[in-house]
């Protein structure tokens, strides 16, 4: 993460799960699809309670992680 320019004092590896699921929702992915992909049950409130967070644009965290993931495919 540090090599990608991500502030590892602020963000940890699990932050990518928060960022990717929050970004998916903002891009119009249905909440049920997000739950299935994350392994949460249909009735799970985990995303709503813990994961649906504001994205930090100024640190480019989300962009860095998604660019890393897309370069691996």
From TrEMBL:
GO terms for biological process: DNA integration; DNA recombination. Coiled coil: none annotated. GO terms for molecular function: DNA binding. The keyword Lyase does not apply. It comes from the Eukaryota. Keywords: DNA recombination. Gene3D superfamilies: Intergrase catalytic core. The keyword Protein biosynthesis does not apply. Signal peptide: none annotated. This is Tyr recombinase domain-containing protein.
């Amino acid at each position: 993460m540090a090599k990608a320019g991500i502030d590892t004092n602020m963000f940890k590896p699990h932050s990518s799960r928060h960022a990717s699921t929050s970004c998916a929702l903002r891009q119009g992915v249905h909440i049920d699809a997000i739950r299935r992909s994350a392994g949460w049950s249909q009735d799970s409130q985990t995303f709503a309670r813990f994961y649906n967070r504001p994205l930090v644009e100024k640190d480019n965290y989300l962009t860095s992680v998604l660019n890393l993931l897309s370069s691996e495919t």
